[in-house]
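To whoever is on call:

I kicked off a structure prediction for a single chain this morning and the downstream step that reads the tokens threw a length-mismatch warning. I double-checked the sequence; it's 430 residues and nothing unusual in it as far as I can see. Pasting both halves so you can look.
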Amino acid sequence: MAITLEELPMKEAQQFWASKVKLSPGEFAKLSDEARLTAFSISGIAKGDELNTVFNSLQKAFDEGVTFDEFKKQTAAIFEKRGWTGHRAWRVDNIFRTNMQTAYNVGRYQQMTKVVNRRPYWMYDAVNDRRTRLHHRHLDGKVFPADHSFWDSWYPPNGFRCRCSVISLSDRQVKARGLKVETIDPTEKLFEPVDPLTGVKYPARVLIPDPSFRYHPGKAVLGGIVDGQLQVGKNLAQRPKLKGAADYRLPSVARLKRLPEAPTLLKSLAQLKTDGLSNRQASNYYRDQFSQAFDLPEGGEKVFNVAGEAVIVSERMITGKNGRVKITKGDRGQYIPLFKQAISEPDEIWLVPMKDDSGKVVLRRRHLKFWRGEDENLAGFGVLDIERGVWNGISIYDVQDGQKSHDGESLLDGPNGYRRGVLLHKRKKK
């Protein structure tokens, strides 16, 4: 089957594709439909060389305009091994077309939002050939304001192998073409499909996107036309039941003794002031200790390979926009040795999907590091969040007798606890 691709907005499509996180099918299945948009997985193919080959072949298609036939040649051994040939070859076509069209439409969304003041109307555009779905054909040519709720359900693709797109229009173009700007969302309302060849009407049916495609891919990747702030509480994954993780739940003094001892902490801010250091001198002390702990070159950064993923560490992570050290807030400077362990020797790594008020979805890697103190009743854990390879937040908790709650819930395993999403890595027991 010949496949013709529309011209891609290359830079936007490349950026979207490069930001994806590669997951195993099991990990991918634990994410919501929107969160899956920011990840890449193929049923029956585990993380590793084969998944990398398919991913890189699609990247090459964005970079160099590789055709479907070339993509099939590059990945033939992988798909033939799974019997995806003959009548099952549609699966390969589906992987190529759905990913390419999704990237294309995300790129188009980025372009259209930049000119939304001049072109505030968007028109649904279906291909209208024999393979066009009846409900997509029904929407063809319908015009809605760019910020209308219709697009939250119907921004394409609206199903596997969907070829629909969106065209932006100015007020002048809408009037010149005699188009009607719709105000009522037709989603979930009945419509009567019409056979394009015979004109015969089919029985009325409900107008809804295909399963797993009722969301706005452009907004999920880039946020709405007006961006909001990240809301940590909006979890987009089911909390899994962990097996064999009791050692890390900090439930009792007996189990605390099985946790690794905390490294020697630095002096607290109060201790430094007792030693006669000013606030500025204390900040500089913590800056120097941070650089030494991570062996950073002056003013530079260092890349750590953690469980197969790169994590960038630099002094910018502990300084504000004005260049002042912010790690003294909450007296977190004393925990720098724990920061190092959380980066290089995490006990658990979670992939946590989050959504902000604008609709943007991000996948954060969350490192958890557990420790016990010299006091047998004292333990704690550190939480370090990483987004696209950059460390962007850390919290340290002291837990007396392994217990601490937040609004009556466990900080670790409660409904809003830190253990969320997909467990990517767990430290092996010694």
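Update from on-call: the warning came from a stale cache, not from the record. Cleared it. Sanity check on the structure: Residues 248 and 341 are 16 Å apart (CA to CA).
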